[in-house]
Amino acid sequence: MNNLTNWLSTLSQDSKPTFEECKTYLAQHLPLLNEFVRTEQDDIWHAEGNVAIHTDMVLQELYKVLDSDAPHITGERRQALVLGALLHDIAKPLTTRRKVLNEKERIVAPRHEEQGRSYLALRLCELPLSHTCIDSVLGLVGYHHLPKLLVIKNQDKSEYLRLAGNADTELLYWLEVADMKGRICPDLENQLSYLQEYRMFCEEYGIWEAKDMYKLIPKAIQVKENTISQIYLNNLAVDQILRREITVPEEAVAKTYAYAERYSNFVIMCGISGSGKSHWIKNNLADFTLISLDEIREEINGSRENQKSRGQVLQIAKDRLKFCLAKKQNVVWDATNLRKDFRDTLCTLGRNYHALITLVAFQQPITSIRKGNTNRQHAIPEDILDKQISNFQWPEFGEAQRMIVVGEKGKVLSYQGSFNFEGNEMQLQ
User: pTM here?
Assistant: First the structure.
Protein backbone atom coordinates (compact mmCIF):
# COMPACT_ATOMS: atom_id res chain seq x y z
CA MET A 1 0.00 0.00 0.00
CA ASN A 2 2.95 2.35 0.63
CA ASN A 3 4.02 2.01 -3.00
CA LEU A 4 0.47 2.76 -4.14
CA THR A 5 0.23 5.74 -1.80
CA ASN A 6 3.50 7.15 -3.11
CA TRP A 7 2.49 6.58 -6.72
CA LEU A 8 -0.88 8.26 -6.26
CA SER A 9 0.79 11.22 -4.60
CA THR A 10 2.98 11.75 -7.68
CA LEU A 11 -0.18 12.39 -9.70
CA SER A 12 -0.65 15.58 -7.69
CA GLN A 13 2.82 16.74 -8.76
CA ASP A 14 4.23 16.27 -12.24
CA SER A 15 4.17 12.55 -13.05
CA LYS A 16 2.88 11.45 -16.47
CA PRO A 17 2.11 7.73 -16.25
CA THR A 18 1.01 5.73 -19.28
CA PHE A 19 -2.13 3.63 -19.24
CA GLU A 20 -0.05 0.48 -18.73
CA GLU A 21 1.68 2.00 -15.70
CA CYS A 22 -1.65 3.06 -14.22
CA LYS A 23 -3.06 -0.41 -14.78
CA THR A 24 -0.09 -1.96 -12.97
CA TYR A 25 -0.93 -0.01 -9.82
CA LEU A 26 -4.73 0.06 -9.94
CA ALA A 27 -6.08 -3.03 -11.73
CA GLN A 28 -6.03 -5.02 -8.50
CA HIS A 29 -8.63 -2.62 -7.10
CA LEU A 30 -10.34 -1.77 -10.41
CA PRO A 31 -10.27 -4.99 -12.47
CA LEU A 32 -12.27 -3.49 -15.35
CA LEU A 33 -9.03 -1.78 -16.40
CA ASN A 34 -7.84 -5.20 -17.58
CA GLU A 35 -10.81 -5.38 -19.96
CA PHE A 36 -10.01 -2.14 -21.81
CA VAL A 37 -7.80 -3.86 -24.37
CA ARG A 38 -10.64 -6.27 -25.22
CA THR A 39 -13.32 -3.57 -25.41
CA GLU A 40 -13.89 -2.43 -28.98
CA GLN A 41 -14.97 1.05 -30.04
CA ASP A 42 -16.81 2.47 -33.02
CA ASP A 43 -14.56 2.81 -36.08
CA ILE A 44 -15.96 6.26 -36.91
CA TRP A 45 -16.18 7.90 -33.47
CA HIS A 46 -13.06 6.10 -32.23
CA ALA A 47 -10.96 4.99 -35.18
CA GLU A 48 -7.91 4.67 -32.90
CA GLY A 49 -9.10 1.24 -31.73
CA ASN A 50 -9.91 -0.26 -28.35
CA VAL A 51 -10.54 1.54 -25.06
CA ALA A 52 -6.98 0.92 -23.82
CA ILE A 53 -5.50 2.73 -26.84
CA HIS A 54 -7.96 5.60 -26.47
CA THR A 55 -7.33 5.97 -22.74
CA ASP A 56 -3.57 6.14 -23.23
CA MET A 57 -4.02 8.76 -25.96
CA VAL A 58 -6.26 10.81 -23.64
CA LEU A 59 -3.65 10.68 -20.89
CA GLN A 60 -0.91 11.86 -23.24
CA GLU A 61 -3.08 14.72 -24.53
CA LEU A 62 -3.94 15.69 -20.96
CA TYR A 63 -0.27 15.98 -20.04
CA LYS A 64 0.21 18.34 -23.00
CA VAL A 65 -2.71 20.45 -21.77
CA LEU A 66 -1.30 20.56 -18.24
CA ASP A 67 2.07 21.70 -19.57
CA SER A 68 0.67 24.39 -21.86
CA ASP A 69 -2.86 25.71 -21.29
CA ALA A 70 -3.52 24.57 -17.71
CA PRO A 71 -0.30 24.65 -15.66
CA HIS A 72 -2.34 26.13 -12.79
CA ILE A 73 -4.06 22.78 -12.24
CA THR A 74 -1.90 21.41 -9.45
CA GLY A 75 -2.07 19.36 -6.27
CA GLU A 76 -5.22 17.41 -5.53
CA ARG A 77 -7.06 18.84 -8.55
CA ARG A 78 -4.30 17.54 -10.84
CA GLN A 79 -4.48 14.15 -9.14
CA ALA A 80 -8.25 14.02 -9.67
CA LEU A 81 -7.95 15.14 -13.29
CA VAL A 82 -5.39 12.45 -14.18
CA LEU A 83 -7.49 9.77 -12.48
CA GLY A 84 -10.59 11.11 -14.22
CA ALA A 85 -8.85 10.78 -17.59
CA LEU A 86 -7.73 7.25 -16.76
CA LEU A 87 -11.17 6.14 -15.55
CA HIS A 88 -13.60 8.16 -17.66
CA ASP A 89 -14.55 5.08 -19.71
CA ILE A 90 -14.25 2.54 -16.88
CA ALA A 91 -17.74 1.14 -17.49
CA LYS A 92 -17.38 0.64 -21.25
CA PRO A 93 -16.48 -3.05 -20.74
CA LEU A 94 -19.89 -3.42 -19.05
CA THR A 95 -21.98 -1.39 -21.50
CA THR A 96 -20.43 -1.76 -24.97
CA ARG A 97 -22.68 -3.40 -27.56
CA ARG A 98 -23.56 -3.25 -31.26
CA LYS A 99 -26.55 -1.26 -32.50
CA VAL A 100 -27.95 -0.45 -35.93
CA LEU A 101 -27.98 3.31 -36.54
CA ASN A 102 -29.11 4.67 -39.91
CA GLU A 103 -29.02 1.15 -41.39
CA LYS A 104 -25.41 0.62 -40.33
CA GLU A 105 -24.11 -1.41 -37.41
CA ARG A 106 -22.27 0.79 -34.94
CA ILE A 107 -20.62 0.23 -31.56
CA VAL A 108 -22.16 2.09 -28.64
CA ALA A 109 -21.74 2.16 -24.84
CA PRO A 110 -25.00 3.65 -23.52
CA ARG A 111 -24.98 5.18 -20.04
CA HIS A 112 -21.37 4.18 -19.43
CA GLU A 113 -20.81 7.52 -17.69
CA GLU A 114 -23.31 7.02 -14.87
CA GLN A 115 -22.49 3.31 -14.56
CA GLY A 116 -18.83 4.19 -14.27
CA ARG A 117 -19.57 6.72 -11.54
CA SER A 118 -21.51 4.18 -9.51
CA TYR A 119 -18.90 1.45 -10.09
CA LEU A 120 -16.21 3.73 -8.68
CA ALA A 121 -18.17 5.28 -5.80
CA LEU A 122 -17.29 2.51 -3.35
CA ARG A 123 -14.21 1.03 -5.00
CA LEU A 124 -12.21 4.27 -4.94
CA CYS A 125 -12.67 4.26 -1.16
CA GLU A 126 -10.28 1.29 -1.07
CA LEU A 127 -7.50 3.59 -2.30
CA PRO A 128 -5.48 6.09 -0.21
CA LEU A 129 -7.30 9.11 -1.65
CA SER A 130 -9.05 12.00 0.08
CA HIS A 131 -12.83 12.20 -0.07
CA THR A 132 -12.50 15.46 -2.00
CA CYS A 133 -10.40 13.77 -4.66
CA ILE A 134 -12.77 10.81 -4.91
CA ASP A 135 -15.74 13.13 -5.26
CA SER A 136 -13.97 15.06 -8.03
CA VAL A 137 -13.15 11.86 -9.92
CA LEU A 138 -16.76 10.69 -9.68
CA GLY A 139 -17.87 14.02 -11.12
CA LEU A 140 -15.47 13.74 -14.04
CA VAL A 141 -16.40 10.14 -14.84
CA GLY A 142 -20.13 10.55 -14.40
CA TYR A 143 -20.61 13.75 -16.37
CA HIS A 144 -17.84 13.88 -18.97
CA HIS A 145 -20.43 13.63 -21.75
CA LEU A 146 -22.32 16.75 -20.65
CA PRO A 147 -20.09 19.69 -21.68
CA LYS A 148 -20.78 19.06 -25.37
CA LEU A 149 -24.32 17.82 -24.83
CA LEU A 150 -25.42 20.96 -22.97
CA VAL A 151 -24.31 23.07 -25.93
CA ILE A 152 -25.71 20.78 -28.62
CA LYS A 153 -29.10 20.65 -26.89
CA ASN A 154 -29.02 24.38 -26.13
CA GLN A 155 -29.74 23.77 -22.45
CA ASP A 156 -30.61 26.62 -20.11
CA LYS A 157 -28.79 27.93 -17.05
CA SER A 158 -30.45 25.49 -14.65
CA GLU A 159 -28.76 22.52 -16.33
CA TYR A 160 -25.35 24.19 -16.09
CA LEU A 161 -25.99 24.83 -12.40
CA ARG A 162 -26.99 21.20 -11.91
CA LEU A 163 -23.76 20.10 -13.58
CA ALA A 164 -21.73 22.48 -11.41
CA GLY A 165 -23.23 20.89 -8.32
CA ASN A 166 -22.03 17.48 -9.47
CA ALA A 167 -18.61 18.22 -10.95
CA ASP A 168 -15.75 20.70 -11.20
CA THR A 169 -16.74 22.45 -14.44
CA GLU A 170 -13.20 23.55 -15.28
CA LEU A 171 -11.69 20.09 -14.78
CA LEU A 172 -14.48 18.70 -16.96
CA TYR A 173 -13.47 21.10 -19.71
CA TRP A 174 -9.82 20.08 -19.67
CA LEU A 175 -10.74 16.39 -19.50
CA GLU A 176 -12.97 16.71 -22.54
CA VAL A 177 -10.36 18.64 -24.51
CA ALA A 178 -8.00 15.71 -23.89
CA ASP A 179 -10.81 13.22 -24.58
CA MET A 180 -11.50 14.78 -27.97
CA LYS A 181 -7.86 15.12 -28.97
CA GLY A 182 -7.16 11.59 -27.73
CA ARG A 183 -9.22 9.97 -30.46
CA ILE A 184 -9.38 9.72 -34.23
CA CYS A 185 -12.68 11.13 -35.51
CA PRO A 186 -13.76 13.11 -38.61
CA ASP A 187 -15.10 16.27 -36.92
CA LEU A 188 -12.55 17.07 -34.22
CA GLU A 189 -12.57 20.85 -34.74
CA ASN A 190 -16.35 20.97 -34.51
CA GLN A 191 -16.28 18.96 -31.28
CA LEU A 192 -13.69 21.29 -29.78
CA SER A 193 -15.82 24.30 -30.72
CA TYR A 194 -18.67 22.90 -28.60
CA LEU A 195 -16.28 22.78 -25.66
CA GLN A 196 -15.34 26.42 -26.17
CA GLU A 197 -19.02 27.36 -26.05
CA TYR A 198 -19.45 25.29 -22.89
CA ARG A 199 -16.60 27.20 -21.25
CA MET A 200 -18.12 30.51 -22.29
CA PHE A 201 -21.48 29.63 -20.72
CA CYS A 202 -19.83 28.43 -17.49
CA GLU A 203 -17.94 31.70 -17.18
CA GLU A 204 -21.10 33.70 -17.96
CA TYR A 205 -23.07 31.85 -15.28
CA GLY A 206 -20.31 32.23 -12.69
CA ILE A 207 -19.67 28.50 -12.29
CA TRP A 208 -16.21 28.11 -13.84
CA GLU A 209 -14.19 25.90 -11.49
CA ALA A 210 -15.88 24.29 -8.48
CA LYS A 211 -18.67 26.34 -6.92
CA ASP A 212 -21.00 25.82 -3.96
CA MET A 213 -24.53 26.30 -5.31
CA TYR A 214 -25.81 26.95 -1.79
CA LYS A 215 -23.56 30.00 -1.48
CA LEU A 216 -23.93 31.15 -5.07
CA ILE A 217 -27.73 31.04 -5.45
CA PRO A 218 -29.21 32.09 -2.05
CA LYS A 219 -26.77 34.99 -1.55
CA ALA A 220 -29.41 37.59 -2.44
CA ILE A 221 -32.21 36.18 -0.26
CA GLN A 222 -30.88 36.26 3.30
CA VAL A 223 -34.13 37.76 4.56
CA LYS A 224 -35.48 35.49 7.30
CA GLU A 225 -35.35 36.43 10.98
CA ASN A 226 -34.64 32.92 12.25
CA THR A 227 -32.15 30.27 11.15
CA ILE A 228 -34.68 27.48 10.66
CA SER A 229 -36.71 29.48 8.13
CA GLN A 230 -33.61 30.78 6.34
CA ILE A 231 -32.20 27.27 5.90
CA TYR A 232 -35.48 26.15 4.37
CA LEU A 233 -35.48 29.11 1.99
CA ASN A 234 -31.83 28.58 0.99
CA ASN A 235 -32.34 24.93 0.10
CA LEU A 236 -35.69 25.37 -1.60
CA ALA A 237 -34.35 28.24 -3.74
CA VAL A 238 -31.62 25.99 -5.15
CA ASP A 239 -34.04 23.10 -5.61
CA GLN A 240 -36.64 25.19 -7.40
CA ILE A 241 -34.10 26.74 -9.77
CA LEU A 242 -32.74 23.31 -10.68
CA ARG A 243 -36.29 22.10 -11.31
CA ARG A 244 -37.13 25.19 -13.40
CA GLU A 245 -39.92 26.20 -11.01
CA ILE A 246 -38.33 29.64 -10.67
CA THR A 247 -35.73 31.54 -12.66
CA VAL A 248 -34.23 33.83 -9.98
CA PRO A 249 -33.71 33.12 -6.25
CA GLU A 250 -35.95 36.01 -5.16
CA GLU A 251 -39.00 34.13 -6.46
CA ALA A 252 -38.42 31.45 -3.81
CA VAL A 253 -39.20 33.91 -1.00
CA ALA A 254 -42.86 34.08 -2.01
CA LYS A 255 -43.15 30.43 -3.07
CA THR A 256 -41.87 29.14 0.29
CA TYR A 257 -43.44 31.79 2.54
CA ALA A 258 -46.32 29.61 3.77
CA TYR A 259 -44.05 26.67 4.69
CA ALA A 260 -40.76 28.11 5.95
CA GLU A 261 -41.84 28.56 9.58
CA ARG A 262 -42.96 24.98 10.14
CA TYR A 263 -42.03 22.05 7.96
CA SER A 264 -41.09 18.40 8.11
CA ASN A 265 -37.44 17.37 8.00
CA PHE A 266 -37.57 14.26 5.83
CA VAL A 267 -34.38 12.17 5.85
CA ILE A 268 -33.86 9.36 3.34
CA MET A 269 -31.13 6.84 4.10
CA CYS A 270 -29.12 5.36 1.22
CA GLY A 271 -26.54 2.62 1.56
CA ILE A 272 -25.59 -1.03 1.23
CA SER A 273 -26.69 -3.39 4.00
CA GLY A 274 -24.07 -3.34 6.74
CA SER A 275 -22.88 0.21 6.10
CA GLY A 276 -24.23 1.48 9.43
CA LYS A 277 -27.46 3.28 8.51
CA SER A 278 -29.48 2.21 11.55
CA HIS A 279 -26.60 2.96 13.90
CA TRP A 280 -26.23 6.45 12.40
CA ILE A 281 -29.95 7.09 12.86
CA LYS A 282 -29.71 6.03 16.50
CA ASN A 283 -26.81 8.43 17.12
CA ASN A 284 -28.05 11.40 15.09
CA LEU A 285 -31.83 11.20 14.59
CA ALA A 286 -33.09 9.68 17.83
CA ASP A 287 -36.00 12.14 18.03
CA PHE A 288 -37.17 11.53 14.44
CA THR A 289 -40.09 9.22 13.68
CA LEU A 290 -38.54 6.07 12.21
CA ILE A 291 -40.05 4.27 9.23
CA SER A 292 -38.09 1.05 8.76
CA LEU A 293 -39.04 -1.46 6.07
CA ASP A 294 -37.24 -4.16 8.05
CA GLU A 295 -39.34 -3.46 11.13
CA ILE A 296 -42.57 -3.42 9.12
CA ARG A 297 -41.63 -6.79 7.56
CA GLU A 298 -41.10 -8.14 11.06
CA GLU A 299 -44.43 -6.66 12.11
CA ILE A 300 -46.33 -8.18 9.16
CA ASN A 301 -44.43 -11.41 8.47
CA GLY A 302 -42.89 -12.16 11.84
CA SER A 303 -39.35 -11.80 10.48
CA ARG A 304 -37.40 -9.03 8.79
CA GLU A 305 -35.79 -11.62 6.50
CA ASN A 306 -39.21 -12.71 5.17
CA GLN A 307 -39.69 -10.93 1.83
CA LYS A 308 -43.37 -11.87 1.40
CA SER A 309 -46.07 -9.21 1.11
CA ARG A 310 -43.67 -6.64 -0.37
CA GLY A 311 -46.49 -4.52 -1.74
CA GLN A 312 -48.27 -4.46 1.61
CA VAL A 313 -45.08 -3.59 3.48
CA LEU A 314 -44.32 -0.72 1.12
CA GLN A 315 -47.88 0.62 1.24
CA ILE A 316 -47.88 0.64 5.05
CA ALA A 317 -44.54 2.47 5.03
CA LYS A 318 -45.80 5.08 2.55
CA ASP A 319 -49.02 5.63 4.49
CA ARG A 320 -47.03 6.22 7.68
CA LEU A 321 -44.71 8.56 5.83
CA LYS A 322 -47.59 10.60 4.44
CA PHE A 323 -49.09 10.91 7.92
CA CYS A 324 -45.80 12.26 9.32
CA LEU A 325 -45.30 14.67 6.43
CA ALA A 326 -48.86 15.97 6.71
CA LYS A 327 -48.35 16.58 10.44
CA LYS A 328 -45.02 18.37 9.77
CA GLN A 329 -43.19 15.78 11.84
CA ASN A 330 -39.49 15.01 11.42
CA VAL A 331 -39.23 11.56 9.86
CA VAL A 332 -36.50 9.22 8.60
CA TRP A 333 -37.00 6.49 5.99
CA ASP A 334 -34.63 3.62 6.79
CA ALA A 335 -33.99 1.29 3.84
CA THR A 336 -31.17 0.67 1.37
CA ASN A 337 -32.70 2.93 -1.36
CA LEU A 338 -29.99 1.88 -3.82
CA ARG A 339 -31.93 2.73 -6.98
CA LYS A 340 -32.43 6.28 -8.18
CA ASP A 341 -36.00 5.70 -9.36
CA PHE A 342 -37.12 4.67 -5.88
CA ARG A 343 -35.31 7.60 -4.25
CA ASP A 344 -37.03 9.87 -6.78
CA THR A 345 -40.44 8.52 -5.71
CA LEU A 346 -39.70 9.35 -2.08
CA CYS A 347 -38.33 12.80 -2.94
CA THR A 348 -41.42 13.59 -5.02
CA LEU A 349 -43.60 12.63 -2.07
CA GLY A 350 -41.55 14.88 0.22
CA ARG A 351 -41.80 17.81 -2.19
CA ASN A 352 -45.56 17.36 -2.47
CA TYR A 353 -45.78 17.91 1.30
CA HIS A 354 -43.30 20.84 1.23
CA ALA A 355 -40.77 18.98 3.39
CA LEU A 356 -37.05 19.72 3.57
CA ILE A 357 -35.51 16.54 2.14
CA THR A 358 -32.05 15.33 3.14
CA LEU A 359 -30.40 12.29 1.57
CA VAL A 360 -27.84 10.52 3.79
CA ALA A 361 -25.58 8.39 1.56
CA PHE A 362 -23.05 5.90 2.91
CA GLN A 363 -19.74 5.70 1.02
CA GLN A 364 -17.27 3.16 2.37
CA PRO A 365 -14.77 0.58 1.11
CA ILE A 366 -16.47 -2.64 0.04
CA THR A 367 -14.24 -4.55 2.46
CA SER A 368 -15.63 -2.49 5.34
CA ILE A 369 -19.21 -3.05 4.18
CA ARG A 370 -18.67 -6.82 4.07
CA LYS A 371 -17.23 -6.72 7.57
CA GLY A 372 -20.13 -4.61 8.79
CA ASN A 373 -22.62 -7.06 7.31
CA THR A 374 -20.88 -10.01 8.97
CA ASN A 375 -20.94 -8.28 12.36
CA ARG A 376 -24.56 -7.09 12.27
CA GLN A 377 -27.32 -8.95 14.07
CA HIS A 378 -29.29 -9.56 10.88
CA ALA A 379 -26.61 -10.32 8.28
CA ILE A 380 -27.70 -10.87 4.68
CA PRO A 381 -26.25 -13.61 2.41
CA GLU A 382 -23.10 -12.74 0.46
CA ASP A 383 -24.79 -13.18 -2.92
CA ILE A 384 -27.46 -10.64 -1.95
CA LEU A 385 -24.75 -8.25 -0.77
CA ASP A 386 -22.90 -8.69 -4.09
CA LYS A 387 -26.10 -7.87 -5.96
CA GLN A 388 -26.60 -4.72 -3.89
CA ILE A 389 -23.05 -3.57 -4.64
CA SER A 390 -23.51 -4.27 -8.35
CA ASN A 391 -26.87 -2.47 -8.57
CA PHE A 392 -26.04 0.55 -6.38
CA GLN A 393 -26.71 3.82 -8.20
CA TRP A 394 -24.68 6.50 -6.45
CA PRO A 395 -26.82 9.59 -5.67
CA GLU A 396 -26.27 12.92 -7.37
CA PHE A 397 -26.75 16.59 -6.57
CA GLY A 398 -30.35 17.63 -7.11
CA GLU A 399 -32.07 14.36 -6.19
CA ALA A 400 -32.92 15.68 -2.74
CA GLN A 401 -32.54 19.24 -1.45
CA ARG A 402 -29.53 18.37 0.69
CA MET A 403 -27.09 15.49 0.94
CA ILE A 404 -24.79 14.17 3.66
CA VAL A 405 -22.11 11.62 2.77
CA VAL A 406 -21.10 9.30 5.60
CA GLY A 407 -17.95 7.18 5.67
CA GLU A 408 -16.61 4.53 7.99
CA LYS A 409 -17.64 4.50 11.66
CA GLY A 410 -20.35 7.07 11.00
CA LYS A 411 -17.93 9.87 10.14
CA VAL A 412 -19.47 12.60 8.00
CA LEU A 413 -17.34 13.12 4.88
CA SER A 414 -19.25 16.01 3.33
CA TYR A 415 -22.34 18.19 3.51
CA GLN A 416 -24.08 19.48 0.40
CA GLY A 417 -26.73 22.07 1.11
CA SER A 418 -27.54 24.68 3.72
CA PHE A 419 -27.36 23.33 7.29
CA ASN A 420 -27.68 24.66 10.82
CA PHE A 421 -24.41 24.29 12.72
CA GLU A 422 -24.47 25.10 16.43
CA GLY A 423 -20.88 25.12 17.63
CA ASN A 424 -19.34 22.17 15.83
CA GLU A 425 -22.55 20.14 15.76
CA MET A 426 -24.85 19.88 12.77
CA GLN A 427 -28.55 20.20 13.58
CA LEU A 428 -31.01 18.73 11.09
CA GLN A 429 -33.98 20.36 12.82
Answer: 0.95
